[in-house]
Write a structure and sequence with these properties.
- Helix 4 (about 85-100) packs parallel to helix 5 (about 110-125), helix 4 (about 85-100) packs across helix 9 (about 195-205) and helix 9 packs across helix 11 (about 235-240).
- The chain is α/β, with parallel strands linked by helices and about 400 residues long.
- The strands form four sheets. The protein has a six-stranded mixed β-sheet, sandwiched between helices. It has a four-stranded parallel β-sheet with strand order 7-6-5-8, with helices on both faces. The chain has a two-stranded antiparallel ribbon with strand order 1-2.
- It folds into two domains: about 5-45 and about 85-200, Rossmann fold, CATH 3.40.50.1100; about 50-80 and about 205-385, Rossmann fold, CATH 3.40.50.1100.
- The chain has helices at about 15-30, 35-50, 60-65, 85-100, 110-125, 135-140, 140-150, 165-175, 195-205, 205-220, 235-240, 270, 310-315, 325-340, 345-360, 380-385; strands at about 5, 10, 55-60, 70-75, 105-110, 125-135, 155, 180-185, 225-230, 250-255, 275, 280-285, 320-325, 370-375.
- The structure holds pyridoxal-5'-phosphate (PLP).
- Pyridoxal-5'-phosphate (PLP) binds near residues 110, 112, 233 and 302.
Length: about 400
Amino acid sequence: METGRFGEFGGQYITETLMNELIRLEKEYEFYKNDEEFNKELTTLFNEYAGRPSLLYYAEKMTKDLGGAKVYLKREDLNHTGSHKINNVLGQALLAKKMGKTRVIAETGAGQHGVATATAAALLGMECDVYMGKEDTERQALNVYRMELLGARVHPVTSGTMTLKDAVNETMREWATRVSDTHYVLGSVMGPHPFPMIVRDFQSVIGKEAKAQILEKEGKLPKAVIACVGGGSNAMGIFHEFIPDEDVALIGCEAAGRGVDTPQNAATIANGSKGIFHGMKSYFCQDDMGQIAPVYSISAGLDYPGIGPEHAYLHDTGRATYVPVTDDEAVEAFEYIARTEGIICAIESAHAISHAIKIAPTMSPEDIIIVNISGRGDKDVAAIARYRGIDIHE
Ligand SMILES: Cc1ncc(COP(=O)(O)O)c(C=O)c1O
């Protein structure tokens, strides 16, 4: 495949002022990804700091209750900082440091990526600025304070819908004004090349571990791997290692919000069309004129109007399937997994759980499903209580 492209998707549709920096980033990454010292340092950060490898947990009660396929959960929620975002952030922050950068900047939606970036900056002694839609700073106030505790400055973004897409715009703008000492730690498998490749590579540790773990526990591969999809980094992370295994179904769960037939959803594959935005060619929720549509999900991390270009390619080639999951279904799954397995997962991850609940009973007990639990749900508890009309006196 042509470098920087996944079929027709991907590319570098970006302001000229950033092109030299992207070329340099690709060169440095190509060097460091094969550098023994870099890989040793990153593995130490993964294992000694982030808590890898993450568990592959057999959800026995859920399996018995659903009465079909055996369900395993890949526990990225147990990582330091509470989600898969730390894998990519440690990789990029270490790379930035090697490149001589002293400052990192990031966009964030749910706040998990911002918290992870602030954490890595604290650890590696770098300055950190995080851009977050004002709407999200209110939905995820606890994460704003967490970032500040970690020494980062959080900038509420008031343009557009004041959510994730606007935070990406603002961070890109900021990066273009100050590339000399600053690296943009992009939080998902999106944006211009080489970001979708770099983020995928750093997240692919999830699938590599999951494959080795399931082979050790069960001696065979799963029938399906399920993950939620915002930009798509936890999904690409767990899918990538399984792409050559054609009998393994790869299923991404998008946020259908209040329904794919309402204007309030973020289901890019179900409702989107091909376009160019945030430096990449992919699928986007947009109007006939190419204006990006306002999107909505109960989950700030899935509230994004696009999808990473490699997912667009996996969709077009039929290698992966993408299904919409509504707010109601995700909240039910959030409550179900808490009650059944004693795990309060992120509302993003609950979208993937919801699909497992749907398909497990239709499969044989010989079959295995792996669901990626991309994060923990502490950040969502207050919002879910509100959704259920419960007053918990925050
Ligand atoms: C816990 C969690 N899961 C999933 C996502 C969605 O991102 P991605 O699709 O890149 O994995 C986010 C984003 O903030 C998140 O915090």
